[in-house]
């Protein structure tokens, strides 16, 4: 964590480096020049407008108070999540999983390991991130040992995928990239490679590498796409569609509206064939997730009014209520951002409170959730529910 005694420009530089962004990438996401960023980080230009500090904090996915050197009280569960990330980092840094000896953990039987992996996925779907982070280090080691000792490739890939996804949630994009890269590297056939590339796209977007995310996900989608879409197995089509959605969101993050629209439309065609449900590879893809992606793409492209309209339409679907708590709460955070950008503070408050009711960790643990809450808490009078949430998370005033 950046020290509170540092000038704000130094803190910006430290967090930019931690997020794996170059000055140019950071500048592009801010809508500023690389020269502007360089001057801020060297202290030549002063950040003296709070609205600009909020913009910088949003791109860095930290609370604005962190940049000001007045950190908020950590929310319930935040310390647990931080400790959990450290444990995952240590597990990923181990290279002795194939070694055995008197102190080695016994490798669980394949059926037991499969149950543990399924439990990890379900924990993620319920957005219990601190709990998941506590169990992942041992699960990573177990999956690595099982892979070296037999045929457990698919389980190892899934463990790396879960790890990458939860690290993105925690704002650890660089570490998520490592886990996702290992998922792709461990895979031994095209469909497994494709499933790992979904998380690779998420991680690359999280560190501001949208073009790389587009290239990787589109290539993986084309590799598994059937020659005749109607003839493809639904599981493979779902993975292909999920990859196209990742590519669309990456395009939107780069401001490439035509590519984003084309990619989402391609995914929508596949979704009509796939229908609803979770495939055997724990890939959620259906017509509703396509519409949710349209909302996120609109927010990224600055079309907040369109995002709000699409959001209010999609949450009326019966299929919306069947989505996991993690998926619904994450979308509600995106909706809150859209409402904020349109100036509808009441709408943003409603979306944020509903996200907290659905999956508290999305709001209280994720940097993205805390940023939205911080903007609302300092933006003026807020409803009692938001005020109580702000107090619980550690925002005590403007």
Automatic annotation (TrEMBL):
Domain HTH cro/C1-type as annotated: residue spans: 12-67
InterPro entries registered for this protein in UniProt: Cro/C1-type_HTH (IPR001387), Lambda_DNA-bd_dom_sf (IPR010982)
Source superkingdom: Bacteria
Molecular function in Gene Ontology: DNA binding
Protein name: Helix-turn-helix domain-containing protein
One Pfam family in the UniProt entry: HTH_31
Stored Gene3D superfamilies: lambda repressor-like DNA-binding domains (1.10.260.40)
